[in-house]
Amino acid sequence: MRKTISVIIPVFNEEENIHALYERLVHIAGPSSYDFEIIFVDDGSKDRSFAIVEELGNRDRRVKGVQLSRNFGSHAACLAGLTYAAGDACAFISADLQDPPELLLMLAAEWENGHDIVIGVRQPEGGRQRIFPRIYWKLVRRFALDSTPETGTDVFLIDRKVVKAVVAMGEKNTSIFGLILWSGFSQAVVEYRKGARACGMSKWTLSKKIKLFVDTFVSFSYFPLRLMSVIGITTACAGFIYALVVIAARLFYARPVEGWASLMVVLLMVSGVQMMMLGILGEYLWRTFDSARMRPVFIVKDTRNIDRAD
Q: Residues 245-274: what's their mean pLDDT?
């Protein structure tokens, strides 16, 4: 019996790229030994993205659409796609054609070899624009998830058992890729070269990058809390030593205690460290509070060609 691969594509104002992506997916699906379902998850687009998905769905039942009520973020959109996917395996791919759709068959080949998680790993790229992503992935690998590829990834293919595990977690304010890696199932990697964006401008803004960075570390690492402890102990020790120096200078060398400027510097520095620590604690507390409210990770506004009632 032919296996089905669900291709999940988060979409946010990508009306210029949907047709081209669909054509390439159909091209690789034709001669393949798999059945494909193509799930476009419209993450609160303001353009005609979902209307185009509806048009494609009317012509091709393999095209399915999930429209979210607002922009919840690409990782929430991926989770929505997993929730509605019916395939034996699910794959994520971007809508801007930077990740070649032909890569899916290479991922599927490794999946057939018995790996539950197959990661599309970018080949190393040069250029100044890759410095900060490299730093991010190295920090994640060092302090959060040691199974993270060094050059990063946006493409996964996961087995149905992994899909069930990730959907059951139901976590908010996290990285869907981090959850997949954290699950611990057997992994394989396939290298590929990331291409240029087909049309339009990237929606991956600086604020979204910062949120992902914070979400990843807060969700998968206690390193920020441990760092707070180290800074606190270091600051306390330095203050204690300095206090001994001041007392010794006054008692044994009769030196007057002076230095309004130095006192203000110390006060401001310690206050800044305290505020930073409160900010880190606030990030953890906010996510705990947000989870306790039991609000859904995403809200579905409409669907197309989705047979499941849930």
A: 74
Nearest to 86 by CA among 121, 55, 61: 61
Give the model confidence (pLDDT) of 27-70 as tens digits: 888 777 888 999 999 988 888 899 999 999 999 889 999 999 99
pLDDT in tens, 6-18: 999 999 988 888 9
Nearest Cα residue to 134 out of 122, 146, 119 = 122
Give the range with max mean pLDDT: 75-79, 241-245, 252-256, 270-274: 75-79
The pLDDT score that the predictor gives to residue 6 is 92
Tell me the residue ranges of DSSP E strands in 180-307. 187-192, 300-304
Q: Which amino acid is at 165?
A: A
∠ CA 211-214-218, rounded to 5°: 140
Residue 310 has pLDDT above 50, yes or no: no
Q: 37-69: string of b/e by CB count within 10 Å (b at 16+)?
A: bbbbbbbbbeeebbebbbebbeeeebbbbbbbe
Cα distance between residue 91 and residue 160, in whole Å: 11
Q: Which contacts (CB < 8 Å, 24+ apart) does range 270-278 have?
A: 270/235, 270/239, 273/231, 273/232, 273/235, 277/228, 277/231, 277/232
> Quick one: CA dihedral 58, 308, 69, 91, positive or negative?
negative
Please report the pLDDT score of residue 128 as a whole number: 47
Per-position b or e across 263-284, b if 16+ CB within 10 A of its CB: eeeeeeeeeeeeeebeebeeee
285 Rama sector, left if φ>0, alpha if ψ -120 to 50, beta otherwise: alpha
State the amino acid at position 101 in one-letter form.
P
